[in-house]
TrEMBL record:
Signal peptide (UniProt feature, chain positions): 1-21
Protein name: Uncharacterized protein
SMART domains the UniProt entry points to: LRR_TYP
Keyword RNA-binding: no
TM stretches of this protein: 371-392
InterPro entries assigned: Dev_Immune_Receptor, Leu-rich_rpt, Leu-rich_rpt_typical-subtyp
Organism: Manduca sexta
Compositionally biased spans, kind Basic and acidic residues: 478-490
Keywords assigned: Membrane, Signal, Transmembrane, Transmembrane helix
Amino acid sequence: MGFDVSTLALYLWVLVATVRAGVIRLSDEHEDEMPCRTYTVNGLQYLDCSYRGLNDLPAGIDYDAQVLLLSNNNFITFPTSLKNFTRVEVLDLSGNHLSRPLPSYLQEWTTLSTLNLSNNNYDTWVSDGQRYTIKRLDLSKNKINSIEDDAFKGMSRLHFLDLSENRIYDLPPQVFAEAENLDSLYLCRNYLSDVPRFQSHSMRVLTLSSCQITNIDVNSLAGMTSLLEIDLSINQIETIPDNLASNTLQELDLSFNSISSLSDRTFSSLPHLAVLDLRGNEFRDVWSTSHFSSNPFLREVRVKGNRWSCEGFSVNLLLTYEFLTKEPPKITDQGSLICYSPSNVTQLSWQQAYIRTWHPNEATTESYTTIAVMIGIIIGIVITSFVCRGLVMINRPDPPRAAAETTVLNLNGTIPESRVDSVVMRVPLREEDLPPSYDEALLMPRLNSSFHSLPDFVDEDEEPARQYRRSRSIGDLMESRPRAGDRRSVRRTVEIHIT
Ligand SMILES: *[C@@H]1O[C@H](CO)[C@@H](O)[C@H](O)[C@H]1NC(C)=O
Ligand SMILES: *[C@@H]1O[C@H](CO)[C@@H](O)[C@H](O)[C@H]1NC(C)=O
Ligand SMILES: *[C@@H]1O[C@H](CO)[C@@H](O)[C@H](O)[C@H]1NC(C)=O
């Protein structure tokens, strides 16, 4: 009992200590919260007012900050004293409730290069005819559904634009034409049904992942004269138009769509294609190497997650396999070049399926070894069975002839005890002497004595006719009743006499 109390006291002490430590830590955090924090990293002066629940900026802050972090507050409009800053380079207003156009004084911030308005309430983005020096603009996670034609006209330095996770159904092709330095555009998770036919001489990276795109127009890339990479993954594209053209495109990501076939003209107008991602599509027929004859710079192809059919076992399997895997390999994961059907080659590589079908004799030494082992095992089994059979013959107590003599002797009623067992054993070995049928078995008397009682019983029994029946089953030995009409019994009796 005393032990229990002290254990309880210990637990209580630990509990109190834990709670107190927690309280101390909480109050530490609280102290930290009051004014915005200022610090310097890499020579840049930071003012961090993020996560403060602010509606406006507090008074008495340092307006010399170069990196102004105001994210995750409650700003509905741009805070009034924001205009007191003069040399901000990075303005992070993500995670607020902003929805109005940029304040005009931002034009005068000639140092401003990054503006983060991610996760706010914008539902439209309009042009106000002003010019900004912004290079990186993050408008992701808003509710933008319409963008004016000249919305980015005043952002001639814009290099990176993120419009992911908005509600954009359509974009005017000219919208980025005058953002003449726009390099990377992110439009993931919108509701575009077509690849937009943007006009841009600067755009190099376009990301259109998870946009519910079903259609690629043959000219969709033509207006982007510098495009290097396009990400069209996780859409609902079923076909790539023949002669989809771009003189610059190097990386084409079409993974996780519903594409089922390629033709010799699919990539024929993409002369600089180097990286092709076609994972997770619905390809079944193994491609022909001719599909890639216009793509001399192709260096990486991703194909995992397609259910290849090797049906037909044409030499194409081998050629395409070699095209994709020969040094330097274009496939990083060779395990992806495997047959899904037909069932006799499931899980085999394209190469193995072809070789095993058409050149089974060229199978690897491995299969020879397997065959040799199998033959060895079979021979072993045969020899063992012969040896066993030989041993059984040697150990058999009486050859058939001796048994016949025994029977004759037995009929005369002058048998030695040991020979009776021989008779009993020999008869069931005869071909005609099948075990009793079920019906016959039902007619038989029940066995209620052990086999050991047999010799004694035989001694007592003087009737020769009954002894033959005895050999039929142990049950008979206990039964003195004759079994009239038993054909099998009669046949056996006759047979023994012959023997
Ligand atoms: C900040 O701007 C407000 C007006 O927006 C002005 O009244 C105030 O004096 C400015 N503060 C400083 C320190 O310049
Ligand atoms: C904008 O802020 C969000 C979250 O605060 C962050 O994930 C994102 O990377 C930022 N964007 C840029 C361009 O820095
Ligand atoms: C698999 O079955 C096809 C018939 O569907 C046959 O042509 C081919 O030779 C078989 N391949 C192997 C490796 O057994």
